[in-house]
Design a protein that fits this description.
Helix content is 40%, strand content 24%. The protein contains eleven helices and ten strands. The strands form two sheets. It has a seven-stranded mixed sheet with strand order 3-2-1-4-5-10-6. A three-stranded antiparallel sheet has the order 7-9-8. Helix 7 packs across helix 11. The chain is globular. Bound molecules: benzoic acid.
C-alpha cells in the first residue's frame, strides 16, 4: 500500500510557507492565556510553539513520527496520533488545525473526535485545502497515471470539500458554524514543482520503480509548466483554502 512519508529537512527548507502563512488562522483562534489547545496535524510544531507562546497549554498531534520528533525538539508536548483516532474527552478549549485536514480522508470520524475532545462551547478553528485546491496539480497527476497505465491506478490521497459539504459535516456532528469561507491563495513555491511533488506527493508514486518515478516527475514538470509557471513569478501552486470557525453546541 502506498503511504505518504515526510522528510523534515526538505519540508523545512522548501515548505516553510505552510506555517508562515498561518497567521490569519492564529488570529481567528485568538488564543487566551492558560487555555488548553489541541493542535491537530501539528507538523514540525512551528505554529504549535506560537500558540504556546501566547501562554496556552498546547498538545500537538500528528500521524508522522518524523514530524512529531521535530516538534518535540522545540520542547513541545506532542504525540503520534492520527486525526481519525483521537482519544480525548472534553479536555480542550479549542482545537486548531492548519494545512492538515485535507490529509484526513475519514473526515466524519475526525470531526467527531474533535467534537468529543472539546469542552462544551469549545471552538474548532481550521484551515485546509478546499474545493478546487491544487486543481492543476491534481489534474496533471491524474492524467499522467491515465497516460501511463504501467503506473497503476491514481489514488487521490486528498480531500478538498466545498463550503456546503464541510458545513454539513460540522453541523451534523453538533457544531454551530460561525464562519466558513473558501479563499483562493495562489502560493509561490520556494523551489520548483518537482520539489513540491517530492515533499507532498511521494505517497502517490512510492509504488513505482525509481525510473518510473523520474519519468513521472519530468512529465509532471513539463505538463505543469504552461499552467502554473511564469517568468515573473516562478512556480505558483493554485492553493484554495477553506477556513472556518465552529463552536461545539453543548
Ligand atoms: C495544501 O496545503 O493545500 C496541500 C499541500 C500538500 C498536498 C495537498 C494539499
Amino acid at each position: 500500500m502506498s503511504s505518504q512519508s515526510w522528510d523534515v529537512q526538505q519540508y523545512q527548507e522548501s515548505a516553510s510557507f505552510v506555517p508562515q502563512l498561518g497567521t490569519p488562522l492564529l488570529q481567528l483562534l485568538a488564543p487566551q492565556k492558560q487555555e488548553k489547545i489541541l493542535d491537530l496535524g501539528c507538523g514540525d510544531g512551528k505554529l504549535t510553539l506560537e500558540i504556546k507562546n501566547y501562554g496556552c497549554e498546547v498538545i500537538g498531534v500528528d500521524s508522522s513520527a518524523e514530524m512529531v520528533n521535530a516538534a518535540q525538539k522545540l520542547g513541545l508536548n506532542t504525540e503520534v496520533l492520527s486525526g481519525d483516532s483521537l482519544k480525548f474527552k472534553e479536555e480542550f478549549d479549542a482545537v486548531f488545525s492548519n494545512a492538515a485536514l485535507h490529509w484526513m480522508v475519514n473526515k466524519n470520524q475526525v470531526v467527531a473526535g474533535v467534537y468529543k475532545a472539546l469542552k462544551p462551547q469549545g471552538r474548532f478553528i481550521g484551515e485546509f485545502g478546499g474545493e478546487g485546491n491544487i486543481k492543476h496539480l491534481v489534474t496533471v497527476i491524474s492524467d499522467i497515471f491515465q497516460d501511463f497505465p504501467e503506473f497503476g491506478d491514481f489514488k487521490n490521497p486528498w480531500y478538498f470539500p466545498s463550503v456546503a459539504e464541510y458545513s454539513e459535516i460540522l453541523t451534523e456532528t453538533g457544531f454551530t458554524v460561525e464562519y466558513i469561507e473558501l479563499i483562493p491563495r495562489p502560493t509561490p513555491l520556494k523551489n520548483d514543482v518537482i520539489q513540491w511533488l517530492r515533499i507532498f506527493a511521494n505517497g502517490i508514486t512510492n509504488n513505482l520503480t525509481k525510473e518510473q518515478q523520474q519519468k513521472f516527475l519530468k512529465e509532471a514538470e513539463s505538463r505543469l509548466y504552461p499552467l502554473i509557471y511564469s517568468k515573473s513569478e516562478g512556480w505558483v501552486a493554485d492553493y484554495v483554502r477553506l477556513r472556518f470557525k465552529a463552536i461545539k453546541n453543548s
